[in-house]
């Protein structure tokens, strides 16, 4: 049987080749362009009359802010998400957070893997760059990475499977609890899937006006949400390694060990801090039993890392607790995860560098491995860029509003870290202030390293080294 060859339009072929060349030559700029394009598409969709419950066109600022918050899996909103958007609008929210949480380029790579059943070198480089900032520059890349280039296909398969399995598992845990609460079966099915997606993607949107109020003291329901948030926040490379070597910790990579240890330490430390600082706060935990206090402290500590769900009014927290939340949000979750922030491995590398300096050691070491200096330079860059974005946005908002610094800083860090917790400032802010917060969400989600690489020129070779001179530091 003879087959007729398929002839593609030369114009289309040239256009696709140019896009592919742009993607591989400047992956950081390609990622920014794709993210911006996707936000533009969702802004247009949220602007359709069918997307609102009233049938009227949403104001541009609300459509744009919602699109950015959805694609950046932030969870902040300028409208009541449960009542403002129609079923079509909620479907947009659901689809958008799934795409944004997994990563635009990762989704495209997964689709390519499903269609062609294989990944070429170009597709592997794009997918690897989306998962690891150390790969976003041109030129040779050391293969001493958490996930090697040859494992990219298996990592993509892990991403696709883990999203489906974990979200369905969390929904299965939540569904019977919602039935016991009296929620109709069809509504319970949709809401359980919605909650599980928002937990795994670390977004924090809720589908009902009462939110988590009916489950505020429910260990089962809140525990299921914390499980979803945890697996979404530790990162797909960690899930990939755990799937292969769960019972063999000695085979875990340095990235996995550092991520899990730092993650757990911050979770426990945050829980203890909230329990102590909010113990006597009459607006939050003062009237609760010990069990409820522990539950709420653990829940806030988990959600402050990027989860976005809340059972307490963040605006009523003690000032010291708000500062703790600021720090936890700024740190965020694991690398290549659905969480935001500077990432826990960044914090760990900075502390390892400080310990090495205190010991007088030339090398950073952990678990029998040496961490090269370029990782430290990247960690410092991430923190400085992140602090710059937060400081710049806070100054602009203080000029545009009359809100106190603690509330402005809280919501700015929440936007940058794509966390979604709010003191109420975002909902009541003016249009210019909401545009500033939308830009902060965008910069926070695409990653400070990606942004820096996109703005900078390509890596250039320098065939000489200038004379050395040491400035005074410290």
TrEMBL record:
A GO cellular component entry from the record: plasma membrane
Keyword Plastid: no
Keywords: Cell membrane, Ion transport, Membrane, Transmembrane, Transmembrane helix, Transport
Membrane spanning residue stretches: 30-51, 63-85, 91-115, 155-175, 219-242, 254-277, 327-355, 375-400, 435-457
Membrane disposition: Multi-pass membrane protein
This protein's record includes keyword Protein biosynthesis: no
GO biological process: metal ion transport
Pfam families hit by this protein: TrkH
Lineage top rank: taxon: Bacteria
Main location as per UniProt: membrane
Gene Ontology molecular functions: monoatomic cation transmembrane transporter activity
Location relative to the cell: Cell membrane
Protein name as it appears in the record: TrkH family potassium uptake protein
């Amino acid at each position: 049987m003879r087959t007729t060859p398929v002839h593609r339009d030369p114009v289309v072929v040239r256009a696709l080749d140019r896009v592919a060349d742009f993607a591989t030559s400047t992956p950081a700029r390609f990622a920014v362009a794709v993210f911006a394009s996707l936000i533009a598409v969702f802004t247009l969709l949220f602007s359709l009359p069918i997307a609102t419950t009233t049938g009227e066109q949403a104001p541009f600022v609300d459509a744009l802010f919602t699109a950015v918050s959805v694609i950046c899996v932030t969870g902040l909103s300028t409208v009541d998400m449960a009542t403002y958007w129609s079923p079509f609008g909620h479907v947009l929210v659901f689809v958008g957070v799934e795409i944004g949480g997994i990563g635009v380029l990762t989704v495209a790579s997964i689709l390519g893997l499903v269609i062609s059943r294989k990944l070429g070198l170009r597709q592997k480089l794009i997918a690897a760059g989306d998962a690891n900032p150390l790969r976003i520059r041109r030129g040779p890349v050391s293969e001493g990475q958490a996930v090697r280039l040859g494992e990219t296909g298996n990592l993509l398969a892990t991403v696709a499977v883990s999203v489906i399995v974990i979200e369905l598992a969390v929904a299965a845990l939540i569904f019977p609890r919602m039935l016991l609460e009296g929620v109709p079966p069809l509504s319970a099915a949709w809401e359980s899937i919605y909650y599980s997606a928002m937990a795994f993607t670390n977004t924090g949107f809720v589908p009902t006006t009462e939110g988590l109020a009916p489950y505020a003291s429910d260990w089962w329901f809140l525990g299921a949400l914390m499980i979803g948030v945890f697996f979404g926040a530790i990162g797909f490379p960690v899930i990939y390694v755990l799937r292969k070597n769960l019972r063999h910790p000695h085979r875990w990579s340095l990235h996995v060990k550092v991520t899990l240890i730092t993650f757990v330490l911050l979770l426990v430390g945050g829980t203890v801090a909230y329990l102590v600082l909010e113990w006597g706060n009459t607006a939050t935990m003062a009237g609760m039993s010990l069990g409820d206090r522990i539950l709420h402290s653990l829940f806030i500590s988990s959600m402050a890392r990027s989860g976005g769900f809340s059972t307490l009014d963040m605006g009523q927290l003690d000032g010291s607790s708000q500062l703790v939340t600021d720090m936890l949000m700024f740190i965020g979750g694991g690398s290549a995860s659905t969480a935001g922030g500077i990432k826990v491995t960044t914090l760990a590398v900075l502390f390892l560098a400080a310990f090495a300096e205190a010991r007088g050691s030339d090398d950073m070491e952990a678990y029998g491995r040496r961490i090269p200096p370029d990782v430290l330079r990247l960690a410092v860059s991430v923190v400085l860029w992140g602090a710059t974005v937060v400081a710049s946005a806070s100054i602009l908002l203080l000029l545009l509003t009359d809100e106190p610094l603690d509330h402005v800083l809280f919501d700015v860090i929440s936007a940058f870290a794509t966390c979604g917790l709010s003191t109420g400032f975002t909902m009541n802010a003016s249009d210019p202030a909401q545009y500033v917060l939308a830009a902060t969400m965008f910069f926070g989600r695409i990653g400070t390293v990606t942004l820096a690489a996109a703005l900078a020129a390509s890596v250039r070779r320098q065939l000489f080294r200038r004379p050395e001179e040491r400035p005074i530091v410290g």
